[in-house]
Write a structure and sequence with these properties.
The chain has five helices and 14 strands. It is α+β, with helices and mostly antiparallel strands and about 300 residues long. The protein has a domain of about 60 residues. The strands form six sheets. The protein has a four-stranded mixed beta sheet with strand order 5-6-7-8. Strands 1-2 form a two-stranded antiparallel sheet. The longest helix is centred in the N-terminal third of the chain and has 21 residues. The mean pLDDT is about 80.
Length: about 300
C-alpha cells in the first residue's frame, strides 16, 4: 500500500472521488435502463403458449419419442429378393427393401417391387417404397392434360418439315422478268398504276382518245348526225330528193337587189330586176316638220 490509511483526506479529494463515482453510476444507469433480471413472460411449444405456475413451465413431451427410442424403433437392414425371403428372426423395427413384387403385408396390402416393409409385433407392415410414375407426366404450372394428342403421325410429319420452313413460301416474284423487292414485312408491292383492267374481246389500241376529242364529243347533242338534211321545203312545200340531190326551181323568180341604201324604196327596173329607186318613205318626224313649216303651232 503506497499510502497511510489513517491520514486525513481533504474535502477536495473527497469531492473528486464523489464526482468520479457519480459519473460511473450515471453510465451504469444508462446501460441497464429498463433491464429485468431473468424474467420470462411467455413460453411456447409449436406456437402454443404454456401455462406458467409458480414461475415454472412444464413442457409435456410424453407424445414425443426420445432419440434412443427413434434409434431403436427403426433399423434399416438392407434388401431382400422377395417378401418370402424376409428373415424369420427379424426384430421389431427392422426395415427391408423388397426388390421383387409378390405377397401381402399384415394389412393385406400387395407388395410391389421397391416397397419397404417394417417388422411389427404382429408381422410385416408395408412402410412404402418406390412409386411407379412412368404413366404420369410432371405438372407444369397452370398447364393440364389435353385431348389434343400428339400422335406418331403428327410427330413424323413435324420431323419431315425443314427448320424455319414457311407454308407456301414464294422466294421470288417477277413482273415481265424483273424481280420485285421484298420489304422487311415480307411484302411485295406490284405497281399497276400504268396498267388497265382486261376486258373480254377488247385489246389496247393506238387510236388514242384525247382530251380534245372527249371535249368535242361532249359538245355534240344526243342523236346528232353529220350534215344530214332530212327535208327541204320551199314556201312550206317539201321537195323530192333525187340521187341525194334536191333541185330548187327559181326560174320564175327575180334577183334580189344587190346594192341599195337602207330606207330607200326598191322598184322593178327595165329587165324586171329589183333596183334602188333612191326614194325614201317620209317618217313621222319628216311629216311633222313639214306641217310645222307651213302651219306653225299657235297661229
Amino acid at each position: 500500500m503506497a499510502y497511510n490509511a489513517n491520514d486525513v483526506a481533504k474535502l477536495g479529494h473527497l469531492a473528486s472521488l464523489a464526482s468520479r463515482v457519480k459519473t460511473e453510476l450515471t453510465a451504469l444507469d444508462a446501460k441497464y435502463d429498463g433491464a429485468e433480471a431473468n424474467v420470462l413472460e411467455s413460453v411456447k411449444v409449436n406456437g402454443v403458449a404454456l401455462a406458467i405456475t409458480n414461475k415454472a413451465v412444464n413442457i409435456d413431451l410424453t407424445d414425443y419419442a426420445t432419440k434412443a427410442e427413434i434409434a431403436s424403433g427403426l433399423k434399416v437392414k438392407g434388401s431382400v429378393a422377395s417378401f418370402a425371403a424376409l428373415p424369420a428372426n427379424a426384430e421389431v423395427g427392422d426395415m427391408y427393401n423388397i426388390t421383387t413384387a409378390g405377397g401381402t403385408d399384415e394389412n393385406g396390402v400387395a407388395i410391389k417391387a421397391g416397397d419397404n416393409v417394417v417388422k411389427t409385433s404382429t408381422g410385416w407392415d408395408n412402410f412404402g417404397g418406390t412409386i411407379d410414375l412412368s404413366n404420369y407426366v410432371q405438372k407444369d404450372g397452370a398447364k393440364g392434360l389435353s385431348t389434343e394428342d400428339f400422335t406418331t403421325a403428327l410427330k413424323n410429319k413435324l420431323e419431315g418439315i425443314e427448320a424455319d420452313a414457311d407454308v407456301n413460301i414464294i422466294e421470288t416474284i417477277k413482273v415481265d422478268g424483273t424481280a420485285l423487292t421484298v420489304d422487311a414485312n415480307k411484302a411485295v408491292n406490284i405497281d399497276l398504276t400504268g396498267k388497265v383492267d382486261k376486258v373480254a374481246g377488247k385489246v389496247l389500241s393506238t387510236e388514242d382518245y384525247t382530251t380534245a376529242e372527249k371535249t368535242k364529243l361532249g359538245g355534240i347533242a344526243e342523236g346528232a348526225q353529220v350534215n344530214v338534211i332530212e327535208t327541204v321545203q320551199v314556201n312550206g312545200t317539201a321537195l323530192t330528193p333525187s340521187s341525194k340531190i334536191v333541185n330548187i326551181d327559181i326560174s320564175g323568180k327575180v334577183d334580189k337587189v344587190t346594192t341599195a341604201t337602207s330606207g330607200n324604196i326598191v322598184i322593178f327596173g327595165a329587165n324586171g330586176a329589183l333596183v334602188d329607186s333612191n326614194v325614201k318613205f317620209a317618217t313621222d318626224t319628216d311629216v311633222n316638220a313639214m306641217l310645222e313649216e307651213y302651219f306653225p303651232t299657235g297661229e
